[in-house]
Amino acid sequence: MKVAITTVGSKGPEDESKNEGRLKAGKLAMAKAKSLGADILVLPGGFVVGNNFKSRQQIADVLIDEARSLERAVVFGVDDQSWPQAYGYAWSPVDKMTYSWEQRSSTRHWNKRSGQPITLTDNQWEAKRQSYDDVRLLTTEGGLVGVLLCGELFNERIRNALIKRRPKIVVDLIHRGHGFRSTDAMKKFCHYGIASACSAHVQKEGAMKRCYIPGNGNDGNASTIKLDDRIEGPPRIELKLFEV
To answer: 3-class SS at 50?
Structure first.
């Protein structure tokens, strides 16, 4: 399976006024991912923004329609600022259906300077416990992909549910890469023979593309600052292809 991971040059998530540019860049990234031979493109959490169910769905449909026309799988995040709440959307030419998932596991506090929510690790044994056993899976031509939304990566119960299903790779749609301590959780997937990778918003060019692949050596750490292609944007999108 070939997976195109991305770092997107923005603090993200932002507001609806940025959607037009983000959709244009997202479409270009899909075309680049296809030319690289990727089975799936992974964009970050909060890649685009809505303010209610209808607008969230409409904005997601633009990227889903593009994926459908290119016959390539995609997964990306849409934030609903009316809650606020994070969602993940996905489509693949194998499943041929649109998936929409609400983020289950997070602790939020508000950054007073930016006015945006910051997602941290949660108390994983409290709210939404029953949904933690649900798994979010996408079937691609290269195999099965598990999908996590930002802080869900740190939730032991969610991780264990995914491990039981044995996807080839688990991808996490991160809002902000800076300060996101993903290493230990990604190593745990690697221990069970499952690759993992993250796409995130970043503030600089040449940011780390995080990926752990079983058997890769160095505890499976295949992360790199190298890229295989880029979109100038705005927003700038750097793509790195990993084969698992």
So the answer is: strand
